[in-house]
Each structure stands twice: as C-alpha cells, then as structure tokens.
What does this fold into?
Amino acid sequence: MATKALRLILGDQLTRGLASLKDLDPAMDVVLMAEVMEEASYVAHHKQKLVFVFSAMRRFARELREEGITVDYVALDARENAGSLGGELKRAVARHGAGRVILTEPGEWRVREMFDDWREELDCDVLIREDDRFMCSRATFEAWAGGRRSLRMEFFYREMRRATGLLMDADQPEGGRWNFDPENRKSLPKGHAPPRRRRFEPDAATREVMAMVETRFPDNFGSLEGYGWAVGRVEALEALREFVADALPVFGDYQDALKQGAPFLYHGLISPYLNAGLLAPREVCDAAEAAYREGAAPLNAVEGFIRQILGWREYVRGIYWLKMPEYREINRLGADRRLPDFYWTAETDMNCLAQCVGDTRDHAYAHHIQRLMVLGNFALLAGLAPREVQDWYLLVYADAYEWVELPNVHGMVLFADGGLLASKPYAASGAYIDRMSDYCGTCRYDVKAKIGENACPFNYLYWDFLARNEQALAGNQRLAMPYRTLAKMAPERVEAIRRDAARFLDALPSTYER
Ligand code: FAD
Ligand code: DLZ
Ligand code: SF4
It folds into this structure.
C-alpha cells in the first residue's frame, strides 16, 4: 500500500519541477512549507530579502493549491510555529500521519547538517533527493576537479559549453573563441543614459508581508521603500524577457562600468529569481543564446552573460560543496580588522563606497563590479576579517545564499583561500574606479593624489596591502610588476604610504554588532 508522503519545500526551492515534487500524488501527499525564525535570523537579512523570500513562498504555495495540491503552509506569525524547519517537520509528520518525508537537498551546508539530524529524529523514512536544478551536478564537478592542480573557472566553463552545447558550432566555440571579454569592459561615455529597468509594484499579498517584516524585523538592514522584486514565476519570466530585449545587447560592453545613481545599468537583475528557483539557469542561457541566433544581441554580450551563469554560478557552487566546511575557516592573509560602520550607514567621505552601500541599502542589490571592485576591494585592501565580511555579504543582498556568496567573498574578493579561485587578488587603486565610474568627480578625495590627507585612500591602501602581504603574495607571478614597482620605491615613500594607511584605517569606527 502506498504511504502518505510529506514533501518539504524550502524558501529557495520554489520550482514546480523540483525533485521532491516529482511523482507527487495530489490525492494523498502533502506539501509542507514553513516560514521560521531560524531561517529568518541565522543572519539579520536585508528587509527586502525577507519580503522577497516570504512573499515568493506564499505565491508558490498558492499556485500549488490552484493545481489541487494540498499545501500545509505555516506562516511566521502562526501561533504554534515551532521556529525551526526541524520543529515544523516533526509537527507536520505527526499532524498528517506521514509515512515518508521527501526533501530536495538544501543549498547550504548549514541546512544540510540539519537534514542529517532530522533523519535520525523523525519516526519515518526520510528521502533526500539531488537538487537537479543546476547544469553541473555535484558529482560531475567533483569528477572534473579530481586530481587537477588548477581549478580555474575558465577550464570548467569550456567543459560546460561542450557538455551543454551552448554557443557551440559543432565542437568549436561559436565565433572561434571561448571568451570575448577583450571586447567588453568599456566605461560609459559621458552623459550616457542607461535604460529604465523594469521593477515590480508590490501587490496586496506582498504589501502584507512588508508590513509583517517591518513589525517583526524593524532593526534589520535596508529599506523597503524601493522594493521592486517580482515574487512569482510569471513576473520573473517577464523580467527575463525584458532584460533580453532591452539590456542584453549591451550587457558585454558595459558589464564592468559603474555609474552614480544607476545601480542596475545593463545587468540581468535575475539572481534572486535564479537562486530561489523562479527561473532555471538553463532557460536563462537558452533565452540569451536565442537572442544571439536571431541577430538581436551580439556574441560578446551573449557569451559574457552566459559565462556568468554556465561558468561562474555553476563553478562557485561546485567549489562550495567540494571544499566545505573547511573552506569557510581559511584565512591565508591573516586578515583580522573589524568591519567599519560605513558598511551599514553609508556614511563615509569615500564617495564610491557611500554610493555602493547606499544602492545596497535601497535595493538589496549591487551589481558585480560594485560588489567586487568597490566594496570588496576595500575589504581586501583594509584587511577586514573574512568572517565579518562574509556575514555582511550574506545578509545585505536579496540573492545571497552561502553556496554562492562564500566562494565569491572568500575566494574572489578576499583571497582568503590563498588563490584556489582567483589567480591573483582583485586589488586595485583609485585609478581603476576612476576609469570605470563617475564616482570620483564628486568625491572629497583626490583620486590622482597618492599620499596625504586629500589622497584617495584606495591609492595608499593598495600599496600598503602589497607591502603588508609581501611574504604571502610576492611569489605570485601575476603580481610581479607591482612588486617590482614597490621594490623601487624610496623607503621614505613606503613609510609615508604605510603611515597614511594606518592613520586612515585606525580612525574608522567599527561599533556595529549584527
Ligand atoms: P548579471 O550581471 O546580469 O549576471 C547574470 C547572472 O550570472 C547573475 O544573475 C548570477 O546568477 C550569475 N553570476 C554572475 N556573476 C556571478 C558570480 N561571480 N558568481 C555566481 N553567479 C554569478 N551572486 C549571487 O547570486 N548571490 C550572492 O550572494 C552573491 N554574492 C556575491 C558576493 C561578492 C563579493 C561578489 C563579488 C559577487 C557575488 N555574487 C553573488 C555574484 C554577482 O555579483 C551577482 O550574481 C550579480 O551581481 C547578480 O546580479 P544580476 O542578476 O544583475 O547579474
Ligand atoms: C532565506 C530564507 C528565509 C529568510 N526564510 C526561510 C523560511 O522561513 N523558510 C524556509 O523554508 N526557507 C527560508 N529561507 C531559505 C533557506 O534559508 C534556504 O533554503 C537555505 O538557506 C538553504 O539554501
Ligand atoms: Fe572612491 Fe577614491 Fe574615487 Fe573617492 S577618489 S570615489 S574614494 S576611488
């Protein structure tokens, strides 16, 4: 006789074709979804992220019910809410007399460990299914990584192009090259007006969640005023369609550009949807490839965009599962400075940082170069403690889940893994930010000045970083040139740089506890 199955769906598993929803028997089975404080508070998420996750969960539950599926939905405010996924699962097994629990493996190590505990505690069979929403399974990644000395993304990406056939011309890369980045990375021309990007007005259900979040999480980071994230698949598909039509054709050109007051530029604005399951990575890549095949978007843009998803996104997930849990603890550069307050307040005279923190606060979003080359660059150069930086990135963005956040922060930004992910630290002085943005024009600091009160702090922090980490980094071939320059600097100049760096860093208040 068939037994009743309880199918737990997590807040980032909002996909109709999810492994644990396959073979569901609507006449017998029950889907369990639960809003719980444990998940809402393992970090103090940005208010917009909470609204996005809860509202998307509620919408998904409604859609399943409209199909005739029984959904047991436990709202955060439900009186008897046990506060944890494990507690809710236990209660629901008893409530429904379920003989089996079916789950899809969670995205994060933290939750995976909890799953293993439930297995022992629950009085029924627990079946954990593979999450097949990625284009590269964990086993395939492990096989690719096994025995390799270098785990560079570029090699993985080529394998993925071959395996999926995306942008392939028989067995050769479309256009004769794997990577068109040399055509990308332009700065925006002066006076360039980026397109208005589609944002979604919250409906009544989302507004209800907003009120709940304001009441229950009043002190969390971020503002709800500019909330514009879609919460359902139909709207997420609309966002994708509009991105492909309006922004993808120039995505490549201005992928690395930064502009004051324009946080979205030509980016996809789809990461929260991909990570919560409202969009599938393959369908996003297919939509981009179709635009190229139809002549609606050039190859440099489409290849650059597909590489982010087929390459980087799949790659960081592979690295995460390959290297956890030790990965999180490595701190090769011994960085230990506390996170300065301006990461929360946006109050700093460094205009680039103030703008990027402000965009993050207003939208739970900053594009990749803001995250990497402004906010991340400062964290790297200042020697901020990896754990503090990780927690910040994990809580401020609507798309943040540890499996994608951690390798980006730990590997790409902080070089805390000693170069597993990146061949050299993404360290840059003010000149880079000046070239790629219009931030410096209105900054109180002078980007051309190298030392002294008015000098752009990125300038002396850059050399201070290299000098401070000489032992760990001087052997890196890709840093040979700056280290040669450093070696030729007069000792008094190096001393002045280091003095300015210490003066600046030591004056930064770091008083926030989150
Ligand atoms: P687009 O620029 O339009 O790119 C398209 C898609 O490619 C993104 O939606 C995303 O799914 C994928 N992508 C692009 N770059 C990366 C990358 N480096 N790693 C993984 N996927 C990538 N992305 C997250 O989804 N969650 C995070 O928590 C997260 N934390 C980050 C932290 C740091 C320090 C850095 C440098 C990057 C982080 N990223 C993270 C990657 C990237 O910045 C975001 O995916 C991107 O900004 C999302 O905006 P978008 O959809 O407009 O992206
Ligand atoms: C991010 C999040 C939040 C804020 N709240 C919930 C929740 O109440 N219930 C739930 O099932 N999932 C939530 N999530 C998503 C989970 O944290 C996510 O599934 C894990 O981090 C695993 O990736
Ligand atoms: Fe940032 Fe320096 Fe430019 Fe100011 S001058 S915006 S601190 S890079």
